Amino acid sequence: MGSSFYRNSEACILVFDLTSLDSFKNVESWRNEFLKSLNPPDSATYPFILLGNKSDMSSDIKVSNEAIDNYCKEHNNMPYFATSAKEDINLEEAFNKVADMAFIRNTKNEETFVPTDTKFLKVTQNEPKEKKCCGK
Predict the structure, then answer these.
(1) pLDDT in tens, 48-82
(2) What are phi and psi of 22, to 5 degrees?
(3) What is the pLDDT of residue 73?
């Protein structure tokens, strides 16, 4: 994806498949690709959230909690949610968290626009016409 796709992003969700170790190993390259494309001034603290999908397939999980915890700690204590799109597990919580993170980042970094040249549109209200009865 190009930088225009990421432009104005306030947070990033990284999703990997808990049943695929290769998927987890790709998270770092996806993170780096995002940062390279967006090139934010605060790349060390840019808000990321990590989602491990397919948590409903507990017998097939290949990625250890220890590996996930270590990755998150190494990356600014990145929030992590074990999710299942199929079973709707932790999705609302994860999206609420990323929305909170994006909102906080936006309010910290956003410059307040104060117009210096204000032009006002004159709004007039038409007086209701008097109703005339019987042609008067």
Answers:
(1) 999 999 999 999 999 999 999 999 999 999 999 99
(2) -60, -40
(3) 97
Q: How many CB atoms within 10 Å of residue 95?
A: 15
| 18 phi/psi in degrees, rounded to 5 | -60, -20
C-beta of residue 20 within 8 angstroms of C-beta of residue 54: no
3-state secondary structure the chain: CCHHHHCCCCCEEEEEECCCHHHHHHHHHHHHHHHHHHCCCCCCCCCEEEEEECCCCHHHCCCCHHHHHHHHHHCCCCCEEECECCCCECHHHHHHHHHHHHHHHHHHHCCCCCCCCCCCCCCCCCCCCCCCCCCC
- The CATH number assigned to the domain with range 3-109 reads 3.40.50.300
The token duo for 112 is: 């307040």
Q: How far apart are CA 50 and CA 63, in angstroms?
A: 13
What does the pLDDT look like over 36-47, one tens digit per residue?
998 888 888 899
